[in-house]
Amino acid sequence: MGDRYLKFGIFLAPFHHQGENPTAALQRDLELLQHLDALGWDEAWIGEHHSAGMEIIAAPEIFIAAAAERTKHIRLGTGVVSLPYHHPLIVADRMNFLDHLTRGRAMFGVGPGALVSDAVMLGIRPDDQRRRMDEALEVILPLLRGETVTARSDWFEIAGGRLQLPPYTRPHITMGVACAISPSGPRCAGKHGLPMLSLAATSPAGFGALTGHWDICHEVGASQGYDMQRQDWRLLGMFHIAETRKKAKADVRFGIGAFLEYFDEAATFPVIPADGPRDLDDRIEWMIESGIAVIGDPDDAIKQIERLWQGSGGFGTMMTWAVNWADWVQTKRSYELVARYVFPHFQNSVEPRWTSYRWVCENHARFIAAGQHAVAGARQVYEAEREARAKGAKPGARRKGKSRRAAE
Q1: Which of 66, 107, 197, 268 is the most exposed place for a label (fewest CB within 10 A)?
Q2: CATH of region 7-351, choose from 3.30.300.20, 3.30.1490.20, 3.20.20.30, 3.90.1150.10
Q3: How does residue 269 score in pLDDT terms, banded at 50, 70 and 90?
Q4: pTM of the entire structure?
């Protein structure tokens, strides 16, 4: 990849405890994106979920439209639109529209749907979700390119479908495919020439699959004529950062128990295996030691990202789950610490400053001497001018004629 430069983003599912005010929680999510925008974070991906009461954004496109009006720079993606739940023409039309509204800041992440309960409510067999996603992409991509599409499946029909608007971003809105552990995600990404969003990169199984996923994506993409680029690949992990490891562990006790309970009892897969520890402190330690999460200081975050870099062979964007393990103040502080101390390590933003500082230090004596010489020279010039003025003026003498004030 040449010179390494990583971008940073978040994956906002979101995770809000069922007992809190949902309206206030959603407003806090919008405020979080404003905070990240001010700190220089690059991206935020917003989830789509319809059940279980914790991941409460049902329409990421609407949320992105609201967030885009409150932010200036951060790019905003659907993380992800569950394609089997929607008619593909409507999805393509809405995302193309959003691309215009955000002036190219919108991104289009796609997936089969993470919660089986969502699919069941919609009468969709879980076994059909990945097939439906692939079928949807077969028509969404040509629609986004401005083509006219006629297609029929057992769950949708398009008769001469086309979009009213041209794409704002050429050739179409930035896209990504959700990948976890199975090969279906990287295969789909390669087939359609789309970047991967590796959502389980820090889980033991997900970490072990990283190189294999890239190989699948690259090989399938090459067979379809696509040149897949590592800088387009996004890896996702769990982070809470504080000034010290001790403080980070204390911070996450606020909400990590509810988060783990949700994955134990409601979500499709647990974060901690069923035979893993049950005591909360032991669970926190297990998450740290297994590498699935960073709960520590900025140096711990840097070590984790370096581990992911080595384990994957290189990627372009480091994403963090918006996990809400800490209270609101410490959550914002965590993102601030990452921006202040982790970004620079992977973006070469402080080395030029250190180079300049070292050069000044190494030549400090020379610069001091030069400065003193300049000051002495200025003093001599002043003294000479003062002496000249004293010689050219008689004590008590007055100018003839009117004063300037009188003349005016």
Answers
A1: 268
A2: 3.20.20.30
A3: confident
A4: 0.92
